[in-house]
Amino acid sequence: MNARERDMIADRQLRDAALALVKADIENVKEDVSAKSIKDRVTSRLTDGALELFDEANAMADNKLGVLATLLAAVGIWFARNPIIAALGLEEDELDPETADEIANDAEPRLPLETDA
């Protein structure tokens, strides 16, 4: 037996081994697909994606904890702005009675003219 015949036999054995692996992989995929319904597969993929997104958001929040705390404080102050303004005594002056009546009656407020003064 010469070198070419030995190489050919070795190549055939490698080819047969690779073919056996491919066939085993195909059988595994068939079992996987038949074991899960489409709904289960979609749910699994969505869950995996959501968990991955949560992990990424959590990592970003850990890296930017100061910015996140500042943002939450700003939102809290925004919602509590009226009581804070009232506590500091910085409330706006009430409207004059004529303008208040026009607004209450859904009338368009009119601007005072020079002749009205």
Q: Which key features would you list for this structure?
A:
single chain, 117 residues, mainly alpha
Structure description:
There is one protein chain. This protein is mostly helical. It has a domain at about 1-35. The protein contains five helices and no strands. The longest helix is centred in the N-terminal third of the chain and has 33 residues, at about 5-35. The radius of gyration is 38 Å and the shape is rod-shaped.
Compose a concise summary of this entry.
By secondary structure, the chain is an all-alpha fold. It contains five helices and no strands. The mean pLDDT is 79.
Number of helical stretches of at least 4 residues: 5
List the helices and strands in order. Answer: HHHHH
Taking the sheet with the most strands, its summary is:
none
Based on CA atoms alone, the radius of gyration comes out at 38 Å
| Low confidence ranges | none
Quickly give the structural class.
mainly alpha
Q: What amount of the residues lies in strands?
A: under 5%
By oligomeric state, this entry counts as single chain
Summed over residues and divided by their number, the pLDDT gives a mean of: 79
Helix percent reads over 70%
- Total beta-strand segments: 0
State the distance separating the first and last CA atoms.
122 Å
Principal-axis shape equals rod-shaped
Secondary-structure blueprint:
Blueprint: H1 3-35, H2 38-63, H3 65-79, H4 81-88, H5 97-104
